[in-house]
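SAMPLE LOG
Freezer: B-3
Tube label: C17
Construct: single chain, 293 aa
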Amino acid sequence: MADRNKRLDSNVPGNFYVDATCINCDTCRQLAASSFEEIGDYSAVSSQPQDDLQTHQAYQALLACPVGSIGTEHGDKSRLHQAMASFPIPFADGVSYCGFNSEKSFGANSFFIEHPDGNWLIDSPRYVKHLVDVFEQRGGIAHIFLTHKDDVADTDKYAAHFGSERIIHRGDADAAPSAERIIDGEETALMGPEFHIIPVPGHTAGSMALLYRERFLFTGDHLWWDPHTQSLRSPTRLIWRKWTLLESIRKLLDYQFEWVLAGHGDRVHLSSTDMRRHLLALVERLEKGRSLR
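STRUCTURE (predicted):
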């Protein structure tokens, strides 16, 4: 819970604020970009919400913050309840963003797929009653796909509650040693016609992406959208093997998709043609950087 006595000086005056417990994970900036910005080593309120939509988004950010660093001088319980009820936030085709990001994964995003053959959770949010209730109402969780070892968070609690099958790559299996399904090697694995499990080692030895319906690519910390440069980006630090990462990104050129849904960094929806163009541009930048070394 945020502490107004620790309110950062970088916040503009007004109702919403960020306190000094912020870990600068970017959750609030994704959800309420009109109100929150990165200022120095923290996120802060750069503009107080100006209308109902911005206020709603700011309350969503308050709830999703993994360390409870966002507070209000004068809270509105009705708006807070409305923001709570909005999670998971839907995108398309039964795909949603869970919210309630976990400090255990440094605030990584997690996602939910409603599917007639069994629902999927991609990485793990905090284990909270609201999400458990929603998942129960929508048929539970059959599979929990773990993009890599950093974003496991409360996976075991969700798996125990719902009897879910946990899926992780052997390269990162030490983070989920009791997982029911271990993916080996670097070949794409199919789970039915709509789910492609794509090993993409680089950030970690066992990083994987999940491609759903040739539209949605869940990328963990392997690939994300940078709203400032309007381009796809990939890790430049905390990398297991740098050149393996480049090969893994190049591998994604073999697939068609319209969405990049990342654990860290912004998500984006583009035409498949534009997505491929941006992916090619990223590969070219990485190859150029490699040739200059």
